[in-house]
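User: Structure tokens for both sequences below?

Assistant:
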Amino acid sequence: MKIVLAIDSFKGSLSSSQAEEAAASGLKDILGNECPEFVFIPMADGGEGLLDSLKRSFNAETVSVRVFNPLMEEIEAEYATAPSRKNAAVKCALIEMARCSGLTLIDESRRNPWITTTYGLGQMIAHALEQGCREFIVGIGGSATNDAGTGMLQALGYKFYEGGRLIEEPMCGGKLACVTSIDASGRHPLLDEASFTIACDVKNPFYGPNGAAFVYAPQKGANLAMVKELDAGLRSFASVAGVKDGEGAGAAGGLGGGFATFLSAELRSGAEIVLEESGFYREVQECAIVVTGEGKIDAQTSNGKLPQCVLRAAHSYGKPVLALGGKIEKGAGEAFELALQITPEGMPLSTAMKSDIARDNIMNAIVSNASAIRSVLECR
């Protein structure tokens, strides 16, 4: 019997691999002598964990590079390279934007999307281009920025003007409204040979009530007044640049729109990219059950988040799915054959988030629901 484990990280608590190991331990306890074969497929969407997941899938090599963080402080960051699966003569760069321009790189007291920049991401892309990479898979979740990717573009040779003045300081959210023209003549020449696939897990437009600033800037340190100004800046920049708006353009503070407009990037679900590249579709065909999950299964889960993508893929092969969630909101687990909330009622979140507690909670939830899990397996 084969069991495929494709679980997202329980953010702030367990990595994808740790959650899968805990689930496997619980399943071993209840299945005993049946000795299931476990296939571990560490999962991620467009944010935290994407690089580790893709590195494992591609058997990629890690590359270290000095770049600027969102506040233009020099840091050591990593990306990875591997032969392209589309053209073996081409190198593919695997990049997790949060490693160089992410929110977790800045202390909470210093977070400010008015001044943060994606410049470091542009430096990382330039480095990869010069290492021979021509295909890019870039996860853009977890950003600290609201600059529409202008900092990245600046590092790649684009020039932004306010009237006749060249904006020489790093581009950021607060400068978008100043831009009156853009000069692409000095952009990195190797960009002409490169293709970009962008992994993102949100569908927000570039600006407006559901856009980058109003939905996500408060998480990055913006108050309401700043949110309104950031949104106005995005609107102004969209007009000047002819931004390709649509689903995902507002991802990562407008970075999705910047990639699509200036680098002809394809925006895709990060979860779907990981499923394709990890061999999930091959493994699921011969398995008895798929186990997925994330920290919270709620109404957002059905809007394309990772467990929903796993569910849809597994069901396309007629395979049942067990979902594990730190918390499961009422009705949110109904699409799964079985959905288990791992956190006992009444346990404080601060306790449940501790790694050892979360690990035990996963194992205990599986053991406590042994009969229900066996019933799902018997009905497959």
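Moving on to the next sequence.
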Amino acid sequence: MHILSAITQALNLQNSILAKYLIRNVLMITAAVFIVLGLVIFGNQLVLVINESLEKGIPIADLLPLVGFKMIRDVPLILSLSLFLAIILAISKSYKDSEAVVMNSLGIGDKHLMVFIQPVVIVIFIFILFLTTIAVPWSKQQRSMIIDRSENSSKFSFIKEGEFQEFKDGDIVFYASKVKNIDGESTQDMEEIFIYTLADNQPIITLAAQAQKYTDINTKSVYLRLKDGTRYHGFPSEMNKKILNFDQYDLQIINGEKRQSTNIETKTESKPTLDIIFSSDTREIAEWQWRLSQPISVLILSIFAILLGKTSPRGGKNLGVLAGVIVFIIYNNALLIAKSSLEKGDTLPIIGLWWVHLVVLLIIFIFYAYRHGKLSQLIKKPF
């Protein structure tokens, strides 16, 4: 009854000067922290995307969209951390400026502050929910489409005539004296081919008059079909070399099964939420629980932030912020561990990621009881 009366009183004071003052401080600090974190993280993402585009031969025209899609992916995490730290800083500031002392003398405590900040928290909760369930999956889908289009349509389209180039992380050294694009850049014919590979630490040199790239429909593996050539197992000058003449020989460039296995997680992450929310696949269950967990954590952390921000004027200046960063990292890492465990089938779907939220709520309850001197009463209270 005491909690209900406090909440009722807080709701009556929701439009008061104190509530508006607190909300304004939280919004301003949230924006400032978001800008700082955003500049650091988005700047780093820009460098990573540029490096990735250079490695995979992604056109420059697709560079900005890729950066934008990665930014959308990171906004929920940055925004939730910004709000969490903003609440801690706003509450801590009110205590250091003795504003909270005046509030406490008026009967305004932690429960009232929790209600005061809810308009901001709820708006950000809805926005992050929209991002994680709709915008982020869509952005990952669009990013995957750009990368797949670049890899499928222009793989080897950036081969230059008369230059040695490496593929498969340097396992293949390729040279073509002439390259001709057919049907745009989807198919290429090459002449006077030289290929150097290693098998069992033994060099294999392949020479061919012609070559053409093609993709196996069933396995999705990419091959070079070599024609009228010779394969040398060992260098031509060695006595134990083996020579094989062939009319046609298919050399695998990309392993389709490996490529599909690496894309399973990406495809799951890019699926619409409505398509996976009723799925029985553990990977998809883990994905939609993760999408809901991010906005749920905003609600839970907003309560925790009130308690972490409550300091004395003589307390450590940034102690609450440091504790908040540690709590945020542990919370999110625990969610990731729970997600991975669910994907592997080690956890029941009904437990899934929810146990992490329950544990954090329990910690908040214990911390609140400790702050208000009620923990000893709860321990001594008989069941």
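User: Anything stand out in the second?

Assistant: The chain has two domains: 2-151+271-380, 165-255.
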